[in-house]
């Protein structure tokens, strides 16, 4: 799932030349391993710890990681020209994390991960009213096809329908809103400013929310939570490195390899295997996401050509 800096989508800002595609692919695939491990750990903790507490422990680790950056900058990294947008983005990330953990507490890991991958389609749809972007018929068609994949997995109206499927979709929607706000902040605030805001705001909000439900974790659970935070951070760091070395359109198909790791961990740790309908729906969502990334690459290339 996508965490504070979450997840298998490309970062908004990178600064290295895109000239090492093989290295980028290896890094993107490796990032998926860490993200799947983080999500599996969250699911493993849900029977004994409240969802809010798992998210709080995750953010505690996240804050511990970025605190040296804040201290080194003497607080300068927290200066934002749009603090309200930074706050909104942070709240969206909290919602995305909570909804996803709620989802994996009831659903197989692979199913929740698959449904969470609809976020690129939601970003495309939301970019029209919120960013003023134009979306052509081909990208709209890709979104429609992706939603068909969701319907196949969810199967509303059937005996197989589980209301818990709404949680990973709400997580994807919250993540999509965070990406929209990140785009609005591009060129206004530094990327590390957004990272540090997310850590501080998320930790403060969850520290208040966890008080009524807090359960004293065992040392084993604390160790698992520490692993969860480190795995999520490692996944994000590898993702940044990947998108510094290869273009998003090339890496998009390989970010979906995370579904393989999620399926493997779901089986090895929890004994869950996705059914045939989930496999079909996942294939459709992946195809839609890859095509959307392809059309985005073409749009950006045409925009650069128009600017000369």
From TrEMBL:
Domain EamA: where?
Answer: 23-154, 164-288
> InterPro entries, from UniProt?
EamA_dom, EmrE-like
Do the record's keywords include Transmembrane?
Answer: yes
Which regions span the lipid bilayer?
21-37, 57-75, 87-107, 113-132, 139-158, 164-182, 194-216, 222-243, 250-270, 276-294
- A single GO cellular-component term on record: membrane
Keywords, A to Z, come to: Membrane, Transmembrane, Transmembrane helix
PANTHER family of this UniProt entry?
A: ACYL-MALONYL CONDENSING ENZYME-RELATED (PTHR22911), BLR2811 PROTEIN (PTHR22911:SF103)
Name of the protein = Threonine/homoserine efflux transporter RhtA
Organism equals Enterovirga rhinocerotis
């Amino acid at each position: 799932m996508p965490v504070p800096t979450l997840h298998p989508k490309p970062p908004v800002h990178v600064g290295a030349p895109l000239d090492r595609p093989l290295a980028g692919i290896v890094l993107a695939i490796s990032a998926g391993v860490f993200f799947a491990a983080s999500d599996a750990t969250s699911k493993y903790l849900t029977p004994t710890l409240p969802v809010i507490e798992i998210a709080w422990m995750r953010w505690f680790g996240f804050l511990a990681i970025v605190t040296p950056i804040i201290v080194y900058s003497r607080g300068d990294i927290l200066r934002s020209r749009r603090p309200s947008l930074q706050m909104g983005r942070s709240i969206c990330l909290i919602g995305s994390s909570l909804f996803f953990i709620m989802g994996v507490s009831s659903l197989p890991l692979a199913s929740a991960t698959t449904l969470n991958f609809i976020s690129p389609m939601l970003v495309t749809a939301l970019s029209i009213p919120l960013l003023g972007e134009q979306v052509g018929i081909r990208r709209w068609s890709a979104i429609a096809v992706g939603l068909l994949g969701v319907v196949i997995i969810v199967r509303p109206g059937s005996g197989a329908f589980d209301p818990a499927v709404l949680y990973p979709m709400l997580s994807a929607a919250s993540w999509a809103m965070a990406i929209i706000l990140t785009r609005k902040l591009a060129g206004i605030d530094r990327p590390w400013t957004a990272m540090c805001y997310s850590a501080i705001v998320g930790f403060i909000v969850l520290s208040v929310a966890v008080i009524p439900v807090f359960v004293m974790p065992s040392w084993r659970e604390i160790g698992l939570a520490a692993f969860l935070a480190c795995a999520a951070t490692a996944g994000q760091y590898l993702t940044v490195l990947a998108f510094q070395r290869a273009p998003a359109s090339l890496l998009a198909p390989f970010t979906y390899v995370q579904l393989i790791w999620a399926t493997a961990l779901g089986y090895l740790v929890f004994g869950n295997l996705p059914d045939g309908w989930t496999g079909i729906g996942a294939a459709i969502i992946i195809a839609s996401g890859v095509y959307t990334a392809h059309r985005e690459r073409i749009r950006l290339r045409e925009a650069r050509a128009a600017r000369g």
